């Protein structure tokens, strides 16, 4: 794992889900080399899909911008050392809310 403590930049997740995200990321960093950002992201996404249901998206890297629409309570952006991780449950369109597929939607820039 990369040295250093995780620093949460932005989140609206419940505390237990936040801790799961940090634990899964730490596990991924133990399994994969830091040069394998795609594999780290895949691991984190699949773990959250398995634990919390489908629709999770994960972006991992050292320099990226984002502007995403996510389900309320399903967003976290954090850093471990110089590595940034963005994990969120996405939604294709606000109409999904009307179909009761998701709770409230938020758009956050990270």
TrEMBL record:
Keywords: Cytoplasm, Cytoskeleton, Dynein, Microtubule, Motor protein. GO terms for cellular component: cytoplasmic dynein complex; microtubule. Transmembrane segments: none annotated. SUPFAM superfamilies: DLC. InterPro entries: DLC_sf, Dynein_light_chain_typ-1/2. One of its GO terms (biological process) is microtubule-based process. It comes from the Eukaryota. One of its GO terms (molecular function) is dynein intermediate chain binding. Signal peptide: none annotated. It is found in: Cytoplasm, Cytoskeleton. Gene3D superfamilies: Protein Inhibitor Of Neuronal Nitric Oxide Synthase. Its main location: cytoplasm. SMART domains: Dynein_light. Belongs to the dynein light chain family. This is Dynein light chain.
